[in-house]
Design brief:
- With 284 residues, the chain is of the alpha+beta class.
- The protein has two domains: 1-60, no CATH class; 67-279, q2cbj1_9rhob like domain (Jelly Rolls, Sandwich), CATH 2.60.120.620.
- It is 25% helix and 25% strand.
- It has seven helices and 17 strands.
- It has a nine-stranded antiparallel sheet with strand order 1-2-3-14-10-17-8-7-4, covered by helices on one side.
- Strand 2 (86-93) and strand 3 (97-102) form a beta hairpin.
- It is globular, with a radius of gyration of 19 Å.
- Mean pLDDT is 85; it is low at 47-60.
- The structure holds pyridine-2,4-dicarboxylic acid and zinc ion (ZN).
- Zinc ion binds next to loops.
C-alpha cells in the first residue's frame, strides 16, 4: 500500500496530536483526491508524532517560535493575591513558558467546584478541524461541564485570582471548564491554541487566539493522570489545589508547538480538574 509523501504524513501527525476526529481527517483526504484505501492505510499507520514535532512541523507559521517574557515573570517565590491566597511558585520552565503554582486554590474551593459540577457532567468533545464544530472523540475520554463567566461567587473569585496572577483581564477568559476522568480516562496530546484551518478560524474570528491555559487540580489521583508535556519530557502529577500555567502566543502572533500537552490515563481513582483558557481579546 502507498505511503503518502512527507507533507501528508506531517499533516496526519499534526492533526492527530491536536485530537482531530478521524472521520474529519478522512473526509479531508478524500476531498483532496486520495483514494479511501490509501487514506485509511496512512491514517492507521502514521509515522511517529514526536518526530514531526521535533522538526517544528506542528503549526504553519514562518520560523521557530520566539520566546518572550512570561506573563508570570514579575512574580517571585510567593504570590499573595488580593483575596489573601498565598500561592507558591513550585516549578518554572522558561521555554516553553510553564509555571506550576502550589496552593492556588483552597481544598474547600476545590471540593465546591466538584460538588457544583457533578449533576451537569456530559461527555467531552474536541474541535473538528474541518468545521470548527464540537465532536466526541476517542482521544478525549472525560466527562465535563462549563461555568459561564461570573456564574456564581466561587467562579467570580477564582476568575479574579486567575486574572490577577496572569495579568490578563477577566473578560478575556473563556468560562471555566470542569473535567472528570475515571478508569483509563485520558486526553491525548494536543495544542490548546487553534490551528490555522477553516475550523480553527471559526474559533479565532471574534476573540482571537488562545494565549494561556491554567489547569487547576481539584483532587489527588491514586495512580496516573499526570498532565504531560512530551516535547520537554515533563509530567505534572495532580496535587489538590495546585495549578499548572502555560502560555503559547507571542507578540508576533506565533504559537508555541512545544506546549503540546495531554492528560495521561487515570490508572486508579479519579481525576478532577478545572481549566481556564484565556484569549487575546474579550471572549464572546
Ligand atoms: O487533564 C489534563 O491534565 C489536561 C491535559 C491536557 C487538560 C487539558 N489538556 C485541557 O483542559 O486543555
Ligand atoms: Zn489542553
Amino acid at each position: 500500500m502507498q505511503l503518502l509523501d512527507k507533507p501528508w504524513q506531517n499533516w496526519i501527525n499534526e492533526n492527530f496530536a491536536r485530537g482531530c476526529a478521524f472521520e474529519a481527517m478522512l473526509a479531508d483526504m478524500l476531498k483532496a483526491g486520495i483514494s479511501k484505501d490509501v487514506a485509511l492505510f496512512n491514517l492507521n499507520n502514521r509515522s511517529d508524532q514526536a518526530l514531526v514535532i521535533a522538526e517544528g512541523g506542528s503549526n504553519q507559521q514562518d520560523g521557530p517560535y520566539e520566546q518572550e517574557a512570561s506573563y508570570l515573570f514579575q512574580h517571585d517565590n510567593t504570590i499573595v493575591t488580593l483575596d489573601g491566597q498565598q500561592i507558591q511558585v513550585a516549578m518554572r520552565v522558561t521555554a516553553p513558558d510553564v509555571v506550576l503554582l502550589d496552593n492556588f486554590m483552597t481544598h474547600e474551593e476545590c471540593d465546591a467546584f466538584c460538588e457544583l459540577s457533578k449533576s451537569t457532567l456530559v461527555k467531552s468533545t474536541v474541535v473538528d478541524d474541518a468545521t470548527g464544530a464540537s465532536v466526541g472523540h476517542e482521544h478525549r475520554t472525560s466527562m465535563g461541564t462549563y461555568f459561564t463567566l461570573g456564574q456564581n461567587d466561587l467562579v467570580k473569585k477564582i476568575e479574579a485570582r486567575i486574572a490577577e496572577v496572569t495579568g490578563t483581564p477577566v473578560p478575556n477568559g473563556e468560562g471555566i471548564q470542569i473535567l472528570n476522568y475515571v478508569g483509563g480516562g485520558e486526553y491525548r496530546p494536543h495544542f490548546d491554541y487553534f490551528p490555522d484551518t477553516i475550523g480553527g478560524r471559526v474559533h479565532t474570528a471574534k476573540s482571537g487566539q488562545r494565549t494561556i491555559t491554567v489547569i487547576m487540580y481539584l483532587n489527588e489521583v491514586k495512580a496516573g493522570g499526570a498532565t504531560v508535556l512530551p516535547s520537554i519530557n515533563l509530567s505534572v502529577y495532580p496535587k489538590k489545589g495546585s495549578a499548572l500555567y502555560f502560555s503559547y502566543l507571542n507578540s508576533k502572533g506565533q504559537v508555541d508547538p512545544s506546549t503540546l500537552h495531554g492528560g495521561a490515563p487515570v490508572i486508579q481513582g479519579e481525576k478532577w480538574i478545572a481549566t481556564k483558557w484565556i484569549r487575546e481579546r474579550i471572549y464572546m
